Amino acid sequence: MKKKIVFILGSYPVISQPFLYNQILEVATNESYEVKIIVFNRTGEQIHKAYEALNDLVHEIILPSRLTLVNRVKSGVNSFFGLLFHNPISLLKSFNFVKFGRNSVNLNYLVLANGMKEVHADIFHCHFGPNARIIADLKDIGVINGKLLASFHGADITVYPRKFGENYYARLYRSFDLFTGNSGFIIDKMLANGCPKERTFKIPECLNVSKFKFRTIAPSRTVFKMLTVGRFVEKKGYQYSLKAAHLFLQNNIPFEYHVVGDGPLRMEMVEFAKTLGLENHVIFHGAMKQEDLVDLYNTVHVFMLPSVTAADGDTEGQGLVLQEAQAIGLPVLATLHNGFPDSILDGETGYLVPEKDSDSLYDKLTAFSTDVDLCNRMGIKGRSFVEQNFDSAIVVKDLIKLYDRLL
User: Fold this and answer.
1) Can you list the domains of the chain with their CATH numbers?
2) PANTHER family from the entry (predicted)?
């Protein structure tokens, strides 16, 4: 008999979370498992065609807090009577305002308890700490009976405890059976916050390496092309890569810097590029579909990710784009930030430099621009590194070992 795995996601689909869909697809294709996905918000974003098979596995439970007052009351009334004759004790527990706070007051837990009461699974695998925290509370309410696994990825452990208190995940740590982090950095943060060490394991974000065609391209002798992919938010550190690009301009080195992504700081960075005189050298592409992004990967010579720790403590997670770039054969340049040391072999598949150090970024970029053999050596090594450590088939084998441990 197939074992049932229910993945808990907050929103779906999210264009920036292919690492989740790579993992879920790999589990779903395993004949030993039956997969279902519970989400609290269907975004309407267009999912990449490679993940369309997941759409049939998704079930949305709409949170009342997202509804108008009238619809919230209707949802609450329906859930009240749905639980009243099925599980009156859970109905009462969902109204524990003192313990559950806002999620009880706004009827989220009433509706979730009703929506989850007949969702049966051997394992509930929750991605991101806040979603796992909800499931921990629903277990306390009495509507979750399977084994529980929580996966942390980045801001959920670097920001949330600072923002909401160090005990934000205390009930989660007591209730869940196993925990994963995507890098050594994230696991250290989890352990420092109280996550039990003996039940915590490293499971990196993964990708289907076969979808990325390897190639070697010698850097152009006329125009050196760089690429960064990421949202325009503080932790991406775009101002430092733009300053590094400005040094190319000052030294009369022909170059193009391609930037892919959108976000609240985009126009600020566009204006900053103009103040540096880079408007004819930096191309802001906006958000891009995965297939178009792969085409762009194939036209550049190096991938750069200049991330920094934001003022509120927000950091990157593993930085899956680093694995994508290496899978294609690009040398990579990134900062000594969060899980990046797990994502790059420094000096072998790319370079790591200190955060906020535009001069060091420039020095390594010029090394790439003048040494074709270096780029190709690192590209070949990078592909091998990603195949051996981040391919979805390999990573999910380790995940399934954790599932087997629970069953």
Assistant:
1) 3-208+392-406 (3.40.50.2000), 209-389 (3.40.50.2000)
2) SLL1723 PROTEIN, SULFOQUINOVOSYL TRANSFERASE SQD2
